[in-house]
Amino acid sequence: MNITRRKMLVLLPAAALAWENLLAGEPEKAPNYGTAEHWWAMLVDIEKCIGCGSCVNACQQENHVPDGYYRTWIERYRVYDNDWDNPVVDSPEGGKLGFPSEKNPNVKQFFVPKMCNHCADSPCTQVCPVGATFISPDGVVLVDEKYCLGCRYCVQACPYGCRFIHPEKKVAQKCTLCYHRISKGLTTACCEACPTGARQLADLKNPNDPIHQFLRTHSVQVLKPHLATGAKLYYNGLDGSVR
Amino acid sequence: MDKFKDAGHLFRLAAVFLAGIVVFILARGFLVPKSFGQYGHYRGNALAELKSLPVSYAGHDTCEACHSDVQEKKAKSKHARVNCESCHGPQAKHADDPTALKPVKLDTAVLCVRCHEANTAKPKWMPQVVSADHAGGVACDTCHQPHSPAIEAPKTEAKKEVKTGAGVKK
Questions:
Q1: Residue B59, helix vs strand vs coil
Q2: pLDDT confidence of residue B103
Q3: Which positions in chain B touch A98 (Cβ < 8 Å)?
Q4: Quick check: B123 and A176 CB within 8 A?
Q5: What does the DSSP assignment read for B89-143?
Q6: Torsion of Cα atoms, A175 then A181 then A185 then A186, to 10°
Q7: How many angstroms away from the CA of A52 is the closest CA of chain B?
């Protein structure tokens, strides 16, 4: 094709319009879900956790998490001789297949399920240089995989170790609090799979959510409160040795 | 007017800067996605894209819509609060087309011990057994029906067999 100056003048704006349309992306697909009407959190009841690994398994299947990487995992704490400062922590394969039993009877043991704390003042979103990670209007810390450069700033910034770089996509990944599920009225995959109810999804903006009653009547703690991250992963029965 | 005889340099410099600014504004207009800044310093459409990901676990409400018989049985048992997909795994595909994709029968010898194998780290309220001593290789559902695990009267014979070793598969 012979492109004259006149043709070029017509083609350039047309190409610009097409490009802009392409960038606008997909339109909103869940119109009934009001992002401003929710403020998501999660409750973890350590006294109910049996360390079965169902949550880890469910998370990996629901979110296609690559082998060896975990968006949620279970840690087993073992405190010998009341040495709170030096607990022995293990998490073989994220606790997906359970844990070998400890023979020593003189040890304090319990399981701590871990995942993204969906902090209200999250350090990971503050360090992102391109706006690829953000706190959604309903309080979920998310990653825009199309925008992420894979620079790893957020992986280093997270004080809870909840982020990783996807080995093939080379972008940051983390727990999305099953955003594709909770925006459809379902609970998260880990909560769905937990056989004892040790995990409960909670909506702090819903006055009828049992979370409010629970938080009022139980000794609830978040991880690393001194960092003032505004963590919203509430632990019931959290031991002082947990890091 | 000698003072300003070289002012042309400045105008040329200003023109270059201005052209640079125009190019920057145009490029920015083209390169920054439309939805960027819709909710905050991020691409607003990323929310819709994350929402539209497919679901694997259908959720117990979906299961109970069809399997109300199982739900009723389970509700009276100790497994009342164990969701279907906790054992049966993700069944959204089965829920979408129940005839095409049937969930496979579960191997209770593998599945039950995931929760009930004795471990000193498990809380004391959790019913636990050392599976090798308790059943010695006999599948759990020989005696316990997973939807209602308490042993019913006619099943006690089977339990006796297990305890005496008569029914153990060698």
A1: coil
A2: 86
A3: 114, 117, 119
A4: no
A5: ---HHHHHSTTT-PPPPP-HHHHHHHHHB--TTS-TTS--B-HHHHTTT--GGGT
A6: -90
A7: 5
Closest CA to A56 of A87, A91, A88, A89: A91
> In degrees to the nearest 10, what's the CA dihedral of B98, B100, B101, B107?
100
| Cross-chain residue pair B86–A54, CB shorter than 8 Å | yes
Best of A192, A199, A239 to disrupt the B interface (most B CBs within 10 Å) is A192
Q: What is the pLDDT of residue A19?
A: 65
User: How far does the CA of residue A197 sit from the closest CA of chain B (Å)?
Assistant: 7
Residue with tokens 């909506």: A203
Of A101 and A5, more confident: A101
Reduced to 3 DSSP states, what percent helix, strand and coil does chain B have, rounded to the nearest 5? 50, 5, 45
Rg, C-alpha atoms of chain A: 22
The residue of chain B nearest to residue A46, with distances taken between CA atoms, is B123
Residue with tokens 């359970």: A98
Token couple for B28: 């920015």
- Say yes or no to pLDDT of A91 above 50: yes
Q: Are A174 and A131 within 8 A, CB to CB?
A: no
Strand partners, B43: B36
What is the C-alpha R_g of chain B?
A: 34
Q: CB–CB of A180 and B47 under 8 A?
A: no
Residues of B within an 8 Å Cβ radius of A: 30-31, 33-36, 39-43, 45-57, 59-60, 81-83, 85-87, 89-90, 114-115, 117-123, 126
Q: How far apart are CA B111 and CA A57, in angstroms?
A: 13
Which pLDDT belongs to residue A24?
A: 56
Interface subset of A 154-183, CB within 8 angstroms of B? 176, 179-181, 183
Task: Identify which of B40, B83, B120 has the shortest CB distance to residue A134.
Answer: B40
Distances (CA, A) of A134 to A139, B6, B155: 9, 52, 56
Q: What is the pLDDT of residues A20-72, one digit of tens each?
A: 665 555 544 445 788 889 999 999 999 999 999 999 999 999 999 999 999 99
Distance between CA atoms of B94 and B62, rounded to whole angstroms?
11
